[in-house]
Design brief:
The chain is built from eight helices and two strands; from the N terminus they run E-E-H-H-H-H-H-H-H-H. The chain has 279 residues and is mostly helical. The radius of gyration is 20 Å and the shape is globular.
Length: 279
């Protein structure tokens, strides 16, 4: 333990109480990400100049339906992804713990799969271009990632590797060793930096005019940011995919990087999306 390590700001994981109900920062983070993402998607759909021939893929009012299906996709996919990708043995022995999302334990890669299914279903129902639906959702997703990583920090979970950098911290439950605050690194790169890159593409490079460009850039960008931050994050103990310098998070992200590159390349050859005839 270093004497000069920054003390961990012990914040109560419970934000406030409503009678017998405890409202945790973890749940508020997901709520904030979904609601702010919903508002940002509605904003993008009102900016005709961002879309091919100034025609948006679906009306802003339909973003309300998108919020509902995305919420279900993120929660179910995120939880099942955590159960299957990270703690299958524990949950096989304790199946009643699977619904206990209030105790933490969500997987981004699982949430991604769940949200993709939700977006495809929404696009089919709305008669919209699926890639354009994925584009607007991808543009807003870093908001949720930012708040989610802050919640990880408040919960003192997913801490970093041992370190002697001046800003290292001693996390409760992680022993006396000072560590990287890797949750804040992820909030910065996966949240703020990735959002800035996608904003630049949507507003200054007309990325939404080629369906798939924003979604593909998000996939590759998140995969790169996550892989970089994994170098500072404590690997999941005993995980079968923790091999030398590689961690489960890196190996799960490599297919995302490849898929993102392929999606962007294909989008460059795709005809700009037509307007939704139902709007």
């Amino acid at each position: 333990m270093r004497l000069l390590a920054i003390p961990f700001p012990a914040i109560d994981p419970v934000a406030f109480h409503l009678g017998p109900l405890s409202v945790k920062w973890y749940g508020l983070a997901y709520m904030a990400g979904l609601l702010l993402g919903w508002l940002y998607i509605k904003y993008l759909l009102t900016q005709d100049r961002l879309w091919p021939a100034s025609k948006r893929p679906f009306s802003p009012e339909r973003a309300d339906d998108l919020l509902l299906v995305m919420t279900v996709g993120v929660l179910l996919g995120g939880r099942l992804g955590y159960v299957l990708f990270y703690e299958p043995r524990f949950f096989l022995s304790n199946p009643l713990e699977i619904p206990a999302v209030w105790n933490g334990g969500m997987s981004f890669h699982g949430a991604l799969i769940g949200s993709i299914i939700a977006m495809v279903l929404f696009a089919r129902r709305a008669g919209a271009e699926p890639w354009s639906v994925m584009d607007v959702c991808a543009a807003a997703t870093p908001m949720g990632l930012f708040f989610g990583r802050l919640a990880n920090f408040i919960n003192a979970e997913l801490w970093g590797r041992p370190s002697t950098v001046p800003w290292s911290m001693v996390f409760p439950g992680a022993g006396p060793v000072s560590r990287h605050p890797s949750q804040l690194y992820e909030a910065f790169f996966e949240g703020l930096v990735l959002f800035a890159v996608l904003y630049w593409l949507t507003h200054y490079r007309h990325g939404l005019r080629r369906p798939g460009v924003i979604a593909g850039t998000f996939l590759a960008g998140y995969g790169l940011a996550r892989s970089f931050c994994e170098l500072f994050r404590e690997p999941d103990p005993g995980h079968v995919l923790t091999i030398g310098p590689f961690t489960a998070g890196i190996l799960y992200s490599l297919p995302m990087i490849l898929a993102g590159i392929l999606v962007v390349r294909a989008a460059g050859r795709r005809t700009p999306a037509a307007a939704d005839v139902r709007q």
